[in-house]
Amino acid sequence: MKSRSREIVQWQGPSKRYDIVKEFVVALTVVAILTLALSALFSSPDEPSLTIKSWANTSSEDFVLAAATELDGSSPSASYGPPYVAIPGSGQKIGPVNLQALAGVRTPVNSANAFVIDPLRAWPNPSSSLTFALGAWARASPDQQQQWASAYVQALGETKQLKATGAADKYGPVPELTSSLLVMAKSGALDGVVALGSNFYQTNYTHSLLFMGDGTYLEDAAVKQNLGGDQSGMMNETGSYPGQAWLWLYTFWYQIPPFSNEATTIGANADAVVWGIMMLLSLLLLLVPFLPGIRSIPRWIPLYRIIWRQWYRNHPMPGK
Amino acid sequence: MSTTKSVGQTPSTLWTARLRNKFFGGLPPERLLPDKQPAYVASWIYVFGVLTIASLLIIIASGVWLSFEGPLWWHTSNVGHFVNSIHFWSVQLFFFSMAIHLWGKFWMSAWRGGRSRTWMTGVLAFLASIGTAFTGYLVQTNFDSQWIASEAKDGLNSVGIGAWFNVLNVGQALLLHVAALPLIVGLITIIHVLQVRRRGVVPPVGFEDSSGDAA
Which N-terminal residues, if any, form the signal peptide (chain B) (predicted)? Predict the structure, then answer.
């Protein structure tokens, strides 16, 4: 039986002339003309990228608050877990399996240093107050740094202002650090420093995008374009253009409970669970020929009779 | 019923001869480029397979053009923007054609008659194409790619893939998009088409015995 299954059964019934090369050339011509026409008529979307400079200039409060949360370790990137930060117990799970933690920290990011302290140290002509603030921060213990920064984050959250005022010993050098970073960001200098680090060449924007993602500026811009996570964002495109419609099933899960409800276990692990579901469905699609029931659906719903209606008209099946 | 087991085969222990026998035994020239097809090949649904391949060729041609000029060219050049538009719309046509082709083959139970590998290579081509298109969206170097990268990183990180495939690293995404992934899609597509040529087009349900008479 094994050798028989490898035999190639060729059709011995009625045939007709068929020029597949001509068919291909016609198809290529049609697609080429259609593509050129669509391109000429509708062009393609190109919404300019956002920058740290534009973030600092248009959403200064959001920028300063994000910078402060980098210092106190409460920003999304500082508390992310693998692959950026080693935090015991972090990472999403599929049931008991934590693939995120198993993969480990392979792109380590110290957000306080990478996004705030190191860029400020790179400032060519720092003011005396910034030099003093950087020194105070460097000399302080981690607990003291955390205490200053947390107090400042809380104060900024309450006042909704660019710079909270209060006793100097309560916030330490944090107000000077964040306001200096704002000045640096508004000038555009921070974009290069955060992205480049000590390199000349740059193709990796992990730091820049993580930092921008720690504020609300990037997400607010996306939501305005109907690209938010609860707006099927991954499959949409800026403007009125078609996006990645083929991701409809992937984004679909995020729109419905329990995946959309972060208060549930599944919702809190939605990214991993949705990935698990999509991997399983992809495997099932691959194995359709071998799945009893699934492979019989076309026989139960005989749309094939429409596809081959000409054939069946002239070649009725027995008993029909 | 006929078989091709003996076509062009020379018993040999040489790897070269074995490879030749395996390839050309199942794909003699008249089957690789046939000038006739079974009479049941008469439906618009058959057009979408070749439309998918035609779209892929337009994608590759426009992609090669874009790669010669670099990833930022299309932001500042009208010609570049037009070439990008060709790339963009051919991708849309590619997935549109492929989705209809896939659904058509599902309702035709096109895996019958030892054609499961044809179905499976088609599904693999579909999945690999999704990955290739996704990396394309990452390397647009505009707001859309910034946002897609920010969103997608959470999904990929949550299952550990992000530890090796960092969507925030545009250099990695660009190399995958212009080198590894098109090669994979191209190879799978070639294997898929050769499978179709080797096994022939699946007959209508009830006519699997190849004689043209209902089973």
Answer: none
